[in-house]
Amino acid sequence: MKNSVKAVIITGGLVMLLLIGLLVWAVAQRAESENDPKPQVLREESHVLDDGGPDAVTVVEFLDFECEACGAFYSVVEELRQKYDGQITYAVRYFPLPGHVNSMNAALAAEAAAQQGEFEAMYQRLFETQAQWGEAAEPDPAVFRTLAEEIGLDMAAYDKAVKDPATSERVRRDRSEGTFLGVEGTPTFFVDGQMLTLEKWGDLEKAIIEAQSR
Q1: To 5 degrees, how large is the angle CA 112–CA 158–CA 163?
Q2: Hey, which CATH number is domain 47-213, 3.40.50.300, 3.40.30.10, 3.50.50.60, 3.40.630.30?
């Protein structure tokens, strides 16, 4: 066989190996991307309390139900939800802080309630009663079970959900994604995808108004 023919065969083989390698790499990258999606401020599984439609300003709050600042902002948020009803989409995501011994229990209670379609009822009760259980020295899951009874949940289903590892994993997904998005404390608000720096009580409403004008 002439040298020129051998060279063509060898070159063709190397090109084929290179193409196969590139194809394998592309498939691997796509799989990695699908299994580890980029952080998003709002996901399909996020708890949306108000849906203002496609043209509404989107407000997403990362919160800790035991956080006193979140408790203080709760009334502000409720007023804004009423004032801008139909104009904003408001969603909540979990961000339990390690310094609060009941923050994870509270989030589990909220997620267990969500599985029965009662997230907002538990969300409200947690903030309304925060002064009674917040800043406790020891975790007290019984407090949250009582709240679940008060809002009329199926308690067998509630208990099962609280114990289910999938429920705690759901909370941790929010916490992890919040960290990737730059959340360091609570409450942290995102208005139309942009993290808001809070300095005054009126900053959240100001951001909503500015977003409406864009």
Answers
A1: 80
A2: 3.40.30.10
